[in-house]
Each structure stands twice: as C-alpha cells, then as structure tokens.
Amino acid sequence: MVNIRLEGDVRGLLRKTRALAELDKKKLNAALSQGVRTSTLDRFKTGKGPDGRRWPPSQRAIAEGGKTLVDSAQLRNSIHTRSEASGFAVGTNAKHASTHQLGAKNRLIKAKRKKYLRFKVNGRWVMKKKVKVTIPARPFLGLSDDDLQEIRETTEDFLRGSGE
Questions:
Q1: Where are the domains of the chain?
Q2: Quick one: which of 11, 40, 34, 15 has its CA closest to 151?
Q3: 32 touches 11 (CB < 8 A)
C-alpha cells in the first residue's frame, strides 16, 4: 500500500486531476484523427510525404502534366479515420495503397479487362499481356513534425477545456 500526503492548497491539483479523469478521450481522438486526415489529404495536393520530401513523379503525371497519385482521386478519397477512447487510426483499405506507400520492385501487371495492356513508351504505343514495373515509394500516410505539433496543441486545448 502506498500513502501520499499532500500539504498546502491542493484544490488546483485536484481540479486538474478530476478534469483529466473526466476528459472525453473519444472526442479528443476524433479531433486528432480528423487533423491527421486533413494533413494526409494535403499531401496529395503538395506531392510530398510526411518527411517533407517530394514524391517521385509518376510516368502518367509526366506524360499528361497531371499530379502524381491523383489521376482518379480514388486513393485520396479512400482515406478514412476511426477513433475510440483508446486511440485513433487514419488509413485506407484501397488494394493499391501499400504499393504506393512502400513502393514495389518488379511488380507484375497483367491485362484484366482487355486482352492487352496498352501504353506509351518514348512516344510509341506498346501492347503487352503483362509487364514488370518498379514503382517508387510515395508515402502519403504517416505523421510529419507539423502533425505531431498539431496533436500536441490539440491535446493541450482539450486538457485546458477549450476542446470541448
């Protein structure tokens, strides 16, 4: 058994302890998850990973003058959050997400809907049933230094009571 004896005016400490015990952790985690999701979506606009490094441009973006990872916006639109009192998650269930997040060497791509894949190489159209490609990592999930600062500030706001 441990006994702690506090002397002096401890009302402020007790108030803060009570506020911490009554903190709506689910609401805090929901706010944190939305902040991280917003930051993740911004990466698709800036073309930079959580570490601040630019993504290698995709061949499609180079050829068409578009942005990497946002041709159909399917990956960006698949970013969702989940939060509960014990924590939060920001992620996607898109099949190709891990390929873009981590990269892939010698990935075999096969024609599915048509007999051949059709694509341009050096200005010439090529048709193949399958092709091996290397896809560089373009991390879009993760926490940047700015994300960590925002998490810290949001948590402090909740602890002060202004996040409710």
A1: 11-99+142-159, 104-137
A2: 34
A3: no
Q: What is the pTM of this model?
A: 0.79
Whole-angstrom Cα distance, residue 95 to residue 92?
9
Report the distance separating Cα 78 and Cα 158, nearest Å: 28
Q: With contact defined as beta carbons under 8 Å apart, do 154 and 120 qualify?
A: no
pLDDT tens digit sequence for 74-129: 999 999 999 999 999 999 999 999 999 999 999 898 998 899 998 877 778 899 99
> What's the token pair of residue 3?
């006994």
User: CA torsion 115→116→117→121, rounded to 10°?
Assistant: -170
Angle at 58 between CA 102 and CA 51, to 5 degrees: 45
Q: Look up residue 129 and give its two tokens.
A: 């049933």
